């Protein structure tokens, strides 16, 4: 029997619930208590395993102090659509990053930088650090160029 794959929109809405909850520093237990479910149910909502009904989503929005539309926005100008959402590879990684403590902290700090030049510099720094952390292939020198003491 194959595992049921969450609907991409349910997963997206759940990731937005998680992101907002973490932004507020709220635990799953506290959110669950506020909306009248178990923390395991909140986990399922956040993973997209279980769909969030309209009345429950309204309650979550109230507790998290955001409009319901917050859970469906991809950016400020476009409502959420299924077009291309399921086909984006790495969406899970992005969601995991944005809802991690480090990712959330990095994102908050980055958004406080108003100067576009400084933002670009930070981005270049992060890219160079990421490239530097990738393992590089070490090639052994040809036998004729082997250092003294390593020749046969």
The count of β-strands is: 0
Number of helices: 7
Please estimate the helix content. 40-55%
Oligomer: single chain
Instruction: Give the H and E element order.
Output: HHHHHHH
Q: At CATH's second level, what is the architecture of the largest domain?
A: Orthogonal Bundle
Query: Which range does the strand content fall in?
Result: under 5%
Rounded to the nearest angstrom, the distance between the terminal CA atoms is 60 Å
The CATH top-level class label of the largest domain: Mainly Alpha
What is the name of the CATH superfamily of the largest domain?
A: lambda repressor-like DNA-binding domains
Give the helix/strand class.
mainly alpha
Largest sheet: none
GO molecular function: DNA binding
Pfam families: HTH_3 (PF01381)
Domain HTH cro/C1-type: 17-71
Protein name: Transcriptional regulator with XRE-family HTH domain
A few lines on this structure:
By secondary structure, this protein is mostly helical. Helices cover 53% and strands 0% of the residues.
Describe this structure in words.
This protein is mostly helical. It folds into two domains: 8-90, 434 Repressor (Amino-terminal Domain); 101-130. Helix content is 53%, strand content 0%. The protein contains seven helices and no strands. The protein has helices spanning 8-23, 28-35, 39-47, 54-64, 91-98, 101-111, 116-133. Helix 1 (8-23) packs across helix 3 and helix 2 packs across helix 3. The termini are far apart. Mean pLDDT is 78; it is low at 84-91.
